[in-house]
Amino acid sequence: MNSEPSNDNLTVDSPIEAADNDQSVTCGRKRKKIYRYTEGWIEFKKKSVAKMVANTLNGKQIGGKRHTKFHDALWNMKYLKRFKWSHLAEQMAYEKALRDQKLRLEIGRAKREATFYAEMIDRNRHKRAIYNDNNRTYKQRVTDEQIRQQKPNPNELDEELLESIFK
After folding, report:
1. CB under 8 Å, gap of 24 or more: what pairs does 5-11 form?
2. Residues paired with 61 in a beta bridge
3. Where is the composition biased (Polar residues) (predicted)?
4. Among 29, 34, 45, 147, which residue is least crowded by beta carbons within 10 Å?
5. Looking at the DSSP assignment, which residues form a beta bridge with residue 13?
6. 42 Cβ partners below 8 Å, 6+ apart?
């Protein structure tokens, strides 16, 4: 009997999450993204095969050569009773919708903060333009001396008036 399950016995789903802030590794001139698999699901056609695989691989070392990335990692497998593939699809769709909604809320909040900040900068510029001491011009009140100079002195005779009269 073949110990490996054939492709018609199972369906595999494993979402990929990019490692912390889309890290990438440079190999020569090519850049590779580092992916981190956080969870995965396998659906078997037969319940007995699923139970056998879960029991035999749970807690075992993934293995491979000693210098490989997953040499010391362990399998963590669990058989889920009465769990259907459609439940997984619904859960994944719900989580994606929730992530999208949170992202939209976060983007909206960031836009509001940015517009508020821009408005505050404009207000501050406007206030500085109004209250800037370099641009202020003060109108000096007319002094008493200037007022006296502008008024005709009653003791002085108006020469033009006198000339027009006595001519």
Report:
1. 5/44, 5/49, 5/53, 8/45, 9/44, 9/45, 9/46, 9/49, 10/42, 10/43, 10/44, 10/45, 11/42, 11/43, 11/85
2. 74
3. 1-12
4. 29
5. 41
6. 10, 11, 12, 13, 50, 53
**Rounded Cα distance, 76 and 57, in Å:** 8
Asked whether the beta carbons of 40 and 80 are under 8 A apart, the reply is: no
Place of tokens 């109108």: 139
Which helix (H) or strand (E) covers residue 87, if one does? helix 85-131
Q: What is the pLDDT of residues 73-87, one digit of tens each?
A: 888 888 888 887 788
- Written as one letter, the residue type at 72 is D
